[in-house]
Design a protein that fits this description.
Elements (H helix, E strand, L loop, with lengths): L4 H5 L4 H16 L6 H27 L6 H10 L1 H6 L6 H16 L3 H12 L7 H17 L11 H13 L1
Helix pairs in contact: 2-3, 3-4, 3-6, 6-7, 7-9
Length: about 170
């Protein structure tokens, strides 16, 4: 392709790595045939979308955010943007799933899992690094109020480490 290396560096690796892994698994089983990468991409998008909607439904029920979580999750599934990006090569469903998982574990004070999923979000799309900034501000506020440091907060360091891993890969 007549594209520069800068073009490819603009795309983060987690989504393509998942596509390649699913394609390789399909090749071992001999199920892909022609267009293996295309089929793997659609499967990754569908699985990420299904996971996203199921987790969104779980959040709605757990926190009692609506009287009809199934209806709201269905609307979330069939929004025009999700109807398109789950069947073409776009990492949005995977990214939003990682963001929601990170936020969920952050609220449960499981900072290492929050950092892990935040790091995976950052390896999917660069705005994931904003989780680190937001979490950092929460920790600063807690430190000002309580005057003590909880060392479990170090788990969120996985978020920028995910981005640094991408930079190392592209170096």
């Amino acid at each position: 392709m007549p594209l520069s290396n800068n073009y490819f560096a603009a795309h983060l690796p987690l989504y393509p790595i998942l596509i390649k892994a699913v394609r390789e698994i399909g090749e071992i089983g001999g199920i892909w045939g022609k267009l293996g990468y295309l089929k793997a991409m659609v499967l990754v998008n569908l699985l990420a979308t299904i996971g996203l909607v199921l987790f969104f439904y779980y959040l709605l029920k757990k926190f009692k955010l609506t009287n009809n979580p199934l209806l709201l999750a269905s609307v979330f599934l069939f929004l025009p943007r999700f109807l398109v990006v789950r069947t073409v090569g776009a990492p949005e469903s995977l990214f939003i799933l990682m963001i929601l998982l990170s936020l969920f574990f952050f609220e449960k004070t499981q900072f290492w899992l929050a950092g892990l999923f935040g790091g995976l979000a950052t390896m999917t799309k660069t705005p994931g690094i904003l989780l680190f900034v937001g979490y950092g501000l929460v920790f600063v506020e807690k430190f000002i109020k309580e005057k003590k440091i909880d060392w479990n907060w170090l788990g969120i360091i996985l978020i920028p480490l995910g981005l640094l891993g991408v930079f190392g890969l592209y170096a």
